[in-house]
Records
---
Amino acid sequence: MIGYVSADKNELKVRELADYNACYCGLCKSISSRYGQVARLTLSYDCAFIAMLVCGLNGERAAKKQGCVYKPLAKKRIIAEDSPSFQFAADLEIALAYYKLADDWNDEKKLMALFEKAGLYASFKKLNMLSRQLGNIVKDGIYALSKLEKEKCGEIDAVANTFAKILGDAAYFAPLNDEKQKKVLSHVLYSIGRWVYLCDAWDDRKKDEKSGSYNPFVICGKQHDDANASFLLNNALNKAIDAYDLIEIKTHKGVLDNIMYIGCVAKTKEVLGGKHEQSL
Amino acid sequence: MNNPYKTLGVSEDASDSEIRTAYLKLVKKYHPDRYTDPDLKEIANEKLIEINEAYETLSKRSSSANDFRWKGEQQQQGYSGSGNAYSGAFAAEFARARTFISQNNFPAAKAVLDAIGLRNAEWFYLYGIIYLRQGWDNKANEFITTAYQQEPGNPEYAAAYNMIRNSGNPYTRATSSSGGSCSSCDVCSGLVCADCCCECMGGDLLRCC
């Protein structure tokens, strides 16, 4: 996951942008307090979205002025306060990052992956202490995915849904009281996961074809033309939006609506080759 | 019961037409037909009931809004196990597969279908539905399209085909935030049009084209 799920900042209101930034920084702070300074580098907009979604469901909006170690000279900024919602997103972020790197090292022997993995090793130990079950879900999911990739699986649904399932299952560990909303959250994250995987695969298909890395779109090349890719990406996103419409968000609604209805839609268009129309 | 105004997302001094517009919009938003997953369908249904109750309360309150009332119309045609009366080859097997699908027992339904030697539209349709319910939308698309192409006249296949086609269209929503709908593209194409008109009449608006 690398920043596919993000807002279209041009369409945000000023206060919504402040809210978005506060939550992004909040997640970063949460990661650093739980996993140390190195782990902060894994921060992504995707997990910021998950953090905001869970915060929104819990109705959290607390924020205060804080400084940032990475930008010591900058003025103090408004940053969301740490909470179980942020901690959940932080755990998920670390688990995804660590097991992804481990997988990259095992399969493709990328040296960078080994270094980065070594850097995250302390965080990984902590993850096992703090949230072992969530870690195991991610581990099993990434291993299942890596197995399918090794087999050169030609069923794009099987591969994409294996990744989707990681996020869908992880949602059940979110700190929510309402079981029904948890179920809806799981559906949102599942479809978003499918969408992210498909976006990533379609985006990288040319690079992977050259390097010979696994890519479901390359494996069954003839079957997947532009029209089919457009169907798959839009279908996954529409399902995520359908599920999102059932969610009862109390805070951060402006930003979350923007991400789902505008940001991801624009991203899909961009990935599919259309030019991203900037609003004036 | 919750505040009906809040449920419909309108202010307390909203006019009848505003209430009705908001209501219709929400009915569309929470229509259970949008969902293939049974859990989500149920949640959407609950929302719809809440919205209907809210609307009914508000329309009772004002005497003029009696012309329209939601009749609890159940459009849930979804998937019923005993919908089709089969005849012809493998009738019993197809009926059995449908029953398994309606019970969410997909492995059993697949086993029944795999045992059938015939690959007709019904076979592709049922297999497509299984894939759809399991979230294998690429396969579902492939199979349901095949079913529809083999038998375009069948309303059930056509409905499933249209549903899955539409699910792959880019998401569009009228954004209320962007008020003017005149983009830079519209301005340019408008100018070019105006130029063409001028040229027809012997003049010229844009000298370069």
Note: The mean pLDDT of chain A is 89.
---
Amino acid sequence: MPPIRVALAQVAPRLGDLAANLERHTELLEEARAEGSDLVVFPELGLTGYWLQDLNSEVAMRLDDPRLVALAARTRGISAVVSFVEESDDHRLFIAAALLEDGAIRHVHRKLYLPTYGLFDERRFFAAGSVLRATDSRLGVRLGISVCEDWWHLSVANLLALDGAQVLINVSSSPGRDVAVGHREGLGTAASWRSLNRTYAQLTTSYVVFVNRVGVDESFSFWGGSEVVGPSGGSVFQAPLHEDGLFHAVIDPAELRHERIANPLLRDERPEVMLRQLDRIARARAGDTDDEDDR
Amino acid sequence: MSTIDTPADPAPDATGPAFELPAELAIETGVARRLIVDFIRAQLRQAGFERLVLGLSGGIDSALVAYLAAEAIGPEQLLCILMPYRTSSRDSVTDAETVVADLGCPSELVDISPMVDAWFEQPANQDASALRRGNLMARTRMMVLYDRSVTWRGLVIGTGNKTETLIGYTTIFGDSACALAPIADLYKTQVRQLSLAVGVPETIVRKAPSADLWPGQTDESEVGFSYALIDRILFRLIDRRRTIDEVVAEGFERAMVERVDRMVAGAEFKRQMPPIAKVGPRTAGVDYLYPRRRPRASAS
């Protein structure tokens, strides 16, 4: 299988300006196509900006929204991951990331974990998704799409890999903070994310594609630093911090095969053990009986 | 105490270290500078402005903001206004003029004495305390800045730092009034560190911080302890969420920690918009929550 050329669209969305962001997405999609990319990945809420608050309903799109359909129509011969506010039939608002390819919406991931602590207030404004699935793609590899905070919950990368994902894609709007001396790259947030990306790539023997936005919403500066990590945990590509731009990296399915044969961690996973223990733990946490002797 | 730049004593000795920097407060100045410069540019773009107006006192905070603002938008887009009162130190004006000359930005000198004195010459106000006088000076400067922001067509950029914001060493609707606050998440010791990194003249970095409300006044003598110490305590209470007991257990004097904690609690109101009496279905700042600027429906 030939290498997959990935374009990381590390953009600075205009807050609440769907029209401007759609235009920018379209431009970069065409630029990626012209440069021979197979896949272009945009950050979390790249079509709307992040700190929306009560603008959430004003920028929301249903999956049949003509603007989204028109964007999808441009993906003939290229795949794209884009993120926006999705309004469901029952009018819940989700932070969504969609895989667009061959002119259609192929898969939608609704953000599972909505941080509502510290500087975050997502649960006030959005509904949480409840489905996690890897998805096939025209690229010939299975993709596992997640959004920002999803990555701070261990189960997500594991479930996606067990569901067959070979390339884990996380799209983010991560606000940069903590400039204390001593952090790698001078930023605490960047150092934390690098650890996560590397750890997930290594433990799931998958490629990790992380795309984080840049620019400023209100008080928050988003740090960029999008990256691709290989299935052994080694860095394949790192985009600069804070720079707006389209960056390119290559994913090699042969590398994935080598790593998974040499290091068969996924082969040895025990989902049935996890399932039984999770079932017990979930029941105990819900206040049901704890089966101490269930060994 | 561990330090980065050596400093043991913040004495104005031209050969010694410029200031005391506790290790836990040391920042990556390159990253901080990038974040703040980008923040200034983004705030202007979002608001639809290209210019800034700044009250330049001759002290370190407004000097730092001047350098960062000039870097963000170019010195010709930054109007610095020097607003001395007749008792202000002559050095303050000289230091502010040094910044203006170094940056090459437009500037104006506005003597606020007639405006301030007009009020305190009134019989009912003649016995006003130094605090009242200082507050009126700060609010007079605010009026000048906001009036000039109209003719200059620029936003008022704030110069408050994190230390004074937290302990409330600021005049509400005076020096705290601004359209954007680029250094309000930097402690005073971090302001000093960043100032040296961006080229603020060392004489300004070295001199004792002062509100310059009366001759010889310094912040540290007025508050009673050094910024390095206040910052270390604030960093633990606020950023690290430590309790008073935990901070004391680290070796800080209890009376001091409790005093800092009281100052922070007592100034909470200065950091927030005034509470609106909730009467209607949807109330600004309560359950009507929007970004400060947003795309508007076109006028056509």
Note: The first helix of chain A runs from residue 18 to 34.
---
Amino acid sequence: MHFSDDPRLRVDKGKLRLKNPVISASGTFGYGIEMQDIAHPEYYGAIALKGITVKPRAGNPPPRIVEVSGGIINSVGLQNDGIYRFVEEKVMPLKRYRTAIIANINGTTADDYFFITDKLNENASVDYIEINVSCPNVKEGGVAFGKNPKAVAHIVKGVRAKTNIPLMLKLTPQVTDIGEIIRAAQDNGIDIISLINTYPAIAIDINTRKPLLGNIRGGFSGPPVKPMAINLVWEARSATDLPIIGMGGISSWQDAVEFLLAGADAIAVGTWHFVEPDIAAKINEGLCNYMDKEQFSTLAEISGYTWRQYNE
Amino acid sequence: MQQITASIASVRELGSAYFFIEACCPHIAKHARPGHFINVRCGSVLLRRPLAIFSVDGSSIGIFFKAQGKGTSWLAQRRAGEEIDILGPLGKGLFDENNAKRVILVAGGVGLAPLYFYLKYNFHSGAKKILFYGARNANTIFFQNELIDMTDECFFVTEDGSLGEKGLVNEELRRYFLTYSPQDGDLIMTCGPNAMIKEIISFAESENIPCQVSLESYMGCGCGVCLSCVIPAENPEQAGESYFRLCTEGPVVDSKKIDKQKFFNMV
């Protein structure tokens, strides 16, 4: 048995039910099958597919990625073929693998989110819908919604009315009080909280004196954001009992354990896919060994362990 | 595609910050074709560095590169016996003959790498092979004897005139065609700095010569998942296809696939 299928790694909390806690963060693992030679889809508890919009989107002009101290800034800008080609061409090829499928949905208006949800609901082809209100790389919508509790409430309520598919909300770290956003979502029917998206960032070439990204600004990610992401997972755990997916700078199984201890029920890997494509398998193996060594018998015992010491 | 811990067989400093490394990785050596690349993890540098495969010798591959940034400088400091973490072979787009009768190869600097592999791989093919290899000066023109052996005609071009013709490689290419007109069955293959690529594509398309070009881009995954390394596409069917992924749809592409106006603005 592969470590990814070890029954001790099961996640079963509220609407979040996964065979293991490792998820691929949207936008960092394509449509789940491209890297199967080295990173098999079944290593993952769930795969969050590249974000989709109603209409096809070109994305931002290149360069779209730049490496900075410890991390990267990206500005892909939601390049995708639109919802109509999504189910047939992107979801179906992944369906034959034993991993949950998460559709990451985006809009420039609230109606965009409702429309995409309608389409996804018609053929019930995905296991989860992740409402992305935190993309820093689009001019309209995106993170502007995620900073505003009223907009979050409106979008979650409308999406909830369209479907019974479990709903996740992907949050931006760029808020004063993450609890306020989470409560607005929870009051309107969100099932799962996922955080964090990237931090807005700019890098400039001092020789050409131009921005290094075609879009000027992008989203910063990588190991340096990890302590800040863990802080927000801790705050999220303090604000809600809903399942939490923690992400931000995870590059090892030790990082994953840290997120779990702070209150996450599952974790997602993003940037590190580009460094170690087989990171999911390594995290699952590391978690199993950690559970052996520390005598944990379920993942739930680890989730929020440290948080509970100070809050119960 | 595999992720491989490869043992370094040899490291050769060629001078002027250029290096040649041979690494043992049988899977990649077996499947590599001209135009394929590898993505190499370089110490504490975060993103892997994409490098064209230069040669294959038995179960080893060779890479030819210039130590320019943090990643390639780290790589240049490796020693025989050390291990490096490689993803490869990567890329779908390859240098391919398509029944060409006369293949004109235009290399600039380290852009020689995939073209050298093409010449070696197709040594026994029937096509006539003409190479234009440009660099700054005589100290940065490498593998001269092998290149002369593998080609029917071989032109070295240096900016200071210290070896071969003085000037730029695209000017030399144009001069050649002033003497020997384009013919049916001509094919240009090119790799080098973007400013050179721009000139070569413009020339090839104005003369209606098919042109296969190996491009460079800032790359994330190298495997098609992150959509970072994209190049503007000519005549996309819909907005979602306005850019294509260089890592999986290239790095060698037909010049007609590129939206030249947008691409030339970028370079």
Note: The first helix of chain A runs from residue 83 to 95.
